[in-house]
Amino acid sequence: MKLATLKDGSRDGKLVVVSRDLTRCTDASFLARTMQAALDDWTRVAPHLAALAESLEHGSVPSERFHESDAHSPLPRAYQWADGSAYVNHVELVRKARGADMPPSFWTDPLIYQGGSDAFVPPRDPIRMADEAWGIDCEAEVTVIVDDVPMGVGAEEAKDAIRLVMLVNDVTLRALTGPELAKGFGFFQSKPSSAFSPVAVTPDELGDAWDGGKVHLPLMVDLNGKPFGRANAGIDMTFDFPALIAHAARSRPLSAGTIIGSGTVSNKMDGQPGKPVSEGGAGYSCIAEQRVIETIQLGEPKTPFLRFGDTVRIEMKDKAGHSIFGAIEQTVEKYER
Amino acid sequence: MKLATLKDGSRDGKLVVVSRDLTRCTDASFLARTMQAALDDWTRVAPHLAALAESLEHGSVPSERFHESDAHSPLPRAYQWADGSAYVNHVELVRKARGADMPPSFWTDPLIYQGGSDAFVPPRDPIRMADEAWGIDCEAEVTVIVDDVPMGVGAEEAKDAIRLVMLVNDVTLRALTGPELAKGFGFFQSKPSSAFSPVAVTPDELGDAWDGGKVHLPLMVDLNGKPFGRANAGIDMTFDFPALIAHAARSRPLSAGTIIGSGTVSNKMDGQPGKPVSEGGAGYSCIAEQRVIETIQLGEPKTPFLRFGDTVRIEMKDKAGHSIFGAIEQTVEKYER
Known about the structure:
The structure is a homodimer.
Chain A: E1 2-6, E2 14-18, E3 24-27, H1 35-40, H2 42-58, E4 64-65, E5 71-72, E6 81-84, H3 88-98, E7 112-115, E8 127-129, E9 136-137, E10 140-146, H4 155-159, E11 162-169, E12 172-173, H5 174-182, E13 195-196, E14 200-201, E15 219-223, E16 226-229, H6 241-248, E17 258-261, E18 268-269, E19 272-273, H7 287-298, E20 311-316, E21 328-334
Parallel strand pairs in A: 6-17, 8-21
Antiparallel strand pairs in A: 1-2, 1-5, 1-14, 2-3, 3-4, 6-7, 9-12, 10-11, 10-17, 11-13, 15-16, 15-20, 18-19, 20-21
Helix pairs in contact in A: 3-7
């Protein structure tokens, strides 16, 4: 089934079930007022949501047109957003850009950071930032939402805790990243509010593209209407979602509604860093990677980070070409108080 | 007024108003079901909670005995836990222990990390860890809960957003800290679930001890029943709470219910690192600091980190000697799944 949260003026929005083709939705708030409420009581609520989804497909319940622009992030605020960096190729390239070496352990020990989760942005809302000089960048990722996970869970058991799958634009401020990470406490100011796809789907909606740990489909990233990234999320994901969940739960439990991110999707090409889409490559899921490649090839980056007025679109389509999660589409705007 | 969350089997517990002397409480869930619900609608709800608190003091509403052991952390789960490290003396000492230099900018640019907030521990529950070898340590801190804070807020305006004050035991796994921070993404596994004081209080309950930015009272930390720390939270706090809030909100808004931590309270003594309580000093709010002093003085640390069976107690008393927030008291236990 596919679920979304409609903006209704409240902090957590209203839960709806969305049709498989994303054209219609039906109120599900009589089963669970909010997405978090559904996740808090998933075992009891999910079968009823699934039944409602079937009824929606058959046209046997009242429904209305689903507009992606009416959707908030599926969880407008969450109790945890733990973002991995599972495509180690991305880590290697971005560190290279910062002049930082990558220890070999990065290929065996998952990297994850604690993200801010109190104020996510709706998927069609602007990225509002005070200053272009902060180096505004997108990071297109796949994410999962888990149920309660006990401390010390193993990867095999962690598989069963995955409830929903989404996309995210994990906006990153590159000019702030370097100085902030040098302080040793991880990201804070350099990771402003993220936006998630209009729709969250149960893994079965992905069919063969879901193998229990990864999504084997290209992640489509467009900048200002032009293809920028088509990296396959099933390729070069060194740590799959169950591995990331187990890593996150080593010394503490995870509560239902915890969002786990894949990190920026990134593919190698013939064992080398990839090429732009325009040159026949899979392109990039963030601008920083393209800038590293340019620096390697040309001595300096030529693609600028996002400027006020630029638009990022992130989407994933099934093999028949239908959008699975709806599209994140955000324009960068100057923030004024 | 003083507020607490009673454990009732639900994820978020039940909101109660607690008497000033912490002996009695009255159900407040008819005004706001949970602490988060009160914070979500503070402007409207707080005056009613305050009126209820007055009635409780006068004995004009039904009340029951308040047992600190019945309390969960005031927010059993929160949308954000952003923990500063405002006592730069602590940072300097702990970095020394890791063999890491401290850049001078640490005295002017606040340090803050994004903590996990999905699964806090009740204040009288054990610290359950799988392995003593992880170097289990306490960190006693003061925290505030804020209302909605707009992006880009200044410190002066941030003052007005402080709604409640609490204590926290920010448990830290010292053996995991070094390797994890070296990876560059901050703490994750090395910061397991925190426990907050049984009671959260509005700043006016602190009287003269609250100056709008700091709490000028000693933070009492006992290990296995013996005084370990008596550092004054109003001394050597290089960045006060409004400064920490402004830092956290530079590139994103903070949502109501965000918890901001002071970092481990730490006092210098005559311009030098402090002395143990037993030697007439203010002692320490974490074991790591004492171990650094021992290493400096004796060549190696002699105080071990927490072992299974050890107990940590964290409390703060007003000038008349009455407990303000109730006590966090946690025994370390082996975690078995």
